[in-house]
Write a structure and sequence with these properties.
Number of domains: 1
Strand content: 15-25%
Number of strands: 9
CATH superfamily: Alpha/Beta hydrolase fold, catalytic domain
Largest sheet: 7 strands, mixed
Order of helices and strands: EEHEHHEHEHEHHEHEHEH
Distance between the termini: 23 Å
Length: 276
């Protein structure tokens, strides 16, 4: 077994079955750590790497494109497939959509999909309604690169202890110096440029859902503060998979894999993997 943390990556080697974990846009592999270790303990190789331009400066984060993320994840998928007959993809938020996109593009290489808090629309109860007007300006490059949205309370967390730790970091972070803890907690700011990339990618991914055939499990919080339950319901209703399951979690917010129901979320994922 190997735990390779170079470049903030998680690489846990085990069996001939593997899981590619994809963290959320503006996020970090650290948010996948609990799930990664639970899956590895259940006997799977797990790989989760820092997405391009992430865990660095805000200006660097703004450079990311959805095509770069896809290329990056594609290479990791092929890498795992070289040594593992079965490879599953699991992603959080935008990462969930990227996992579905990989399954669409490489149907022979992806054995199953785990969609965690899939995000098509930022319509959760904590989203500032003023953000609904962002699409009116994000097509203008100057404005797209100038506007940064500070992450909103409760930061995707119902767990009060975790939420307070993140609040301390996020509330003190400055635009020009978000602080080194972004490696642990993700970016305290959500650049409009990243929202724009998410929007572009979402439009493409939605068109592919009906042609995806792999087994899929979708986990979503009923009280998701960032993306309402209708996101998961949309994926469930439109995905082409015959083998599909939607699990609604009742005691957490958006970050289901580190929040109050992380143990149940991890076990549901492991149950899904074990039966395929």
């Amino acid at each position: 077994m190997e735990n390779n943390t170079k470049e903030n990556a998680i690489f846990l080697k085990s069996s001939k079955k593997a899981v590619l974990l994809i963290h959320g846009i503006t996020g970090t592999p650290a948010e996948m750590n609990y799930l990664a270790r639970a899956i590895h303990k259940a006997g799977y190789t797990v790989l989760c790497k820092t997405l391009p331009h992430h865990c660095a400066s805000l200006n660097e984060l703004k450079k990311v494109t959805w095509q770069e993320i896809f290329q990056f994840c594609q290479e990791d998928l092929h890498r795992l497939k070289t040594d593992h007959p079965k490879v599953f993809v699991a992603g959080l938020s935008m990462g969930a959509l990227m996992g579905i996109h990989l399954a669409y593009k490489f149907p022979q290489e992806v054995s199953g999909i785990i969609a965690l808090s899939p995000t098509l629309f930022y319509d959760g109860w904590a989203i500032n309604k003023g953000q609904l007007f962002m699409p009116l300006v994000w097509h203008i490059p100057f404005l797209r690169n100038a506007i940064n949205i500070r992450e909103n309370y409760p930061y995707g967390l119902k767990d009060e202890f975790l939420r307070e730790n993140i609040r301390k970091f996020y509330s003190q972070a400055k635009i020009n110096d978000p602080g080194g803890k972004s490696v642990l907690f993700g970016s305290p700011f959500f650049p409009l440029a990243c929202l724009y990339q998410h929007s572009l990618f979402m439009k493409i991914a939605r068109k592919e859902f009906a042609q995806v055939r792999q087994p899929i499990i979708i986990l979503h919080a009923r009280q998701d503060d960032m993306a309402s339950l209708r996101n998961a319901e949309y994926v469930f209703e439109h995905i082409g998979s015959a083998d599909k399951k939607l699990i609604v979690l009742e005691d957490c917010y958006h970050m289901i894999i580190i929040d109050k129901e992380r143990e149940r979320a991890a076990q549901e994922v492991i149950n899904f993997l074990n039966r395929l």
